[in-house]
Amino acid sequence: MIKATAGSPRGRSAVKALARASALLLPLCAARGTGAQEVAGSAMPTTSPAPQTLPGRETLFYLVDARNALDSFEQHAGQVSIVGPQSFRVDAQGQLTGAVPARVLEIAGQHGVRVMPLIVNPGWNLELFHALVNDAAARARMIARMVELGRRDGYWGWQFDFEQIHVSDRDALTRFYRETADALHGAGMKLSIAVYPAPGGLTGGTPYHQWLSDYLVAAYDLKALADAGDFISLMTYLQHTPRTPPGPAGGLPYMKRVVEHALQLGVRPDQLSLGIPFFSTYWYTDWNAERKGFSWSRGLDWAGTLELLRRFDAKARWDGEQGASWAKWEHQGTFEYAWIEDARALAPKLDLERRYGLRGISVWRIGQEDPDVWKVLARWAKRIER
Q1: Residue 151: is the preceding peptide bond cis (ω within 30°)?
Q2: Dihedrals φ, ψ of 84, to 5°?
């Protein structure tokens, strides 16, 4: 079991180790689009008309400032309730920087899509977040800027996307979230938070699972966060990552456990948005001078997924239990794998959302998808309406 407090020598060593580990997570962040922090100039004020999306559950689509994301948003805005541009970052002093691309605001305004920008701790920096969340002046500075920008640019609200937080900052995060929610609600805006999902039963497991709990999961007090803010986006597309063996981004049994764990804590179904992956994942053997050979993975958009399967003449196989397809092939003597998120894989995840009566879905990310997912989403929305 790996246990350490932040102030102990062992805890300080763990913090340093996590800082080194954060650099290793950058390929995963880039695959999810997290590394794309470019912004397109100053945002222009906008006033959104009433939403014109398809009837049914709420659909939040995350977006980065990339051409495929912007083009897909423009083409499918009629099926988007909320757009979540990952456009802002904050430093340890509470200085908020970034801007929602003007094109996003323009498309959202034309189609009545609500805008809820994300705020990240850059590089998932644990020490930066610890300093921010424990500094009252820094917190107040960030909150004031959120209110100012939200009023100026017509945001429906904001989402916290703070990741890699040590469990010792659990209460401080809850306090910060409550302070922010109070200020935004007073200004007529909403607040949500994206959380690393907790399937339950992590403590007392392997050292990896203890690390996962201490540094990625346990800092989120789901019931307190649900009571303070407006909803929680469960990032149920992080089941398997570069740190794990090959597997689905979010298998159905895993997603079910995450949802049921939150409900057992007292979070209401209408406070939960189910995370949906639009990316596939490719596992392969990598090498660098420090680690030599090691297993790694990266995310792929739909075009990249098709090209990978074509390149290795790989055949995808459906896994009904997990609700996704996968493929395996040999590459110069070692096996490589892909877990594939396509339109077929989307349907059972939407059925799960519907079965539990959640508020909707949070999709990472628009622009990476199999084009046929939009037909599946339309059918899902109509089934809910009936």
Answers
A1: no
A2: -115, 85
* CA atoms of 230 and 190, how far apart (whole Å): 6
- DSSP character string of 157-191: EEEEE--S--GGGHHHHHHHHHHHHHHHHHTT-EE
Q: Which two tokens stand for residue 305?
A: 């997924």
| Contacts of 338 by beta carbon, 8 Å cutoff, 6+ apart | 280, 281, 282, 283, 300, 305, 308, 309, 314, 316, 326, 327
pLDDT band at 55 (very low <50, low <70, confident <90, very high): very low
The end-to-end CA distance of the chain, in Å, is 50
Nearest to 216 by CA among 279, 263, 246, 173: 173
Expressed in percent and rounded to 5, the helix, strand and coil fractions of the chain are 45, 20, 35
Our measurement of the distance from residue 132's CA atom to the centroid of its chain's CA atoms, rounded to an integer in Å, reads 21
**Overall residue count recorded for the chain in this entry:** 386
DSSP secondary structure string, 65-91?
S-HHHHHHHHHHGGG-SEEEE--EEE-
| CATH code assigned to 9-277+345-385 | 3.20.20.80
Residue type, 339: W
Which residues neighbour 279 within 8 Å (Cβ) at sequence distance 6 or greater? Answer: 31, 32, 237, 249, 299, 300, 301, 341, 364, 365, 368
Residue 259's beta-bridge partner residues?
none
Q: What phi and psi values does residue 287 have, to the nearest 5 degrees? A: -150, 140
Long-range contacts, 322-327 (Cβ 8 Å, 24+): 322/247, 322/248, 322/251, 322/252, 322/253, 323/248, 323/251, 323/252, 323/348, 323/349, 324/248, 324/249, 324/251, 326/246, 326/248
Q: What are phi and psi of 301, to 5 degrees?
A: -80, 180
pTM of the model: 0.89
Q: How confident is the model at residue 59 (pLDDT cuts 50, 70, 90)?
A: very high
The domain spans of the chain are 9-277+345-385
Question: Per residue in 94-147, pLDDT tens?
Answer: 999 999 999 999 999 999 999 999 999 999 999 999 999 999 999 999 999 999
What phi and psi, each to the nearest 5 degrees, are found at residue 363?
Answer: -105, 125
Percent above pLDDT 90 for the chain: 82
* Of 65-69, 77-81, 150-154, 197-201, the least confident: 197-201
10 Å CB burial of residue 125 (0-12, 13-18, 19+) is buried
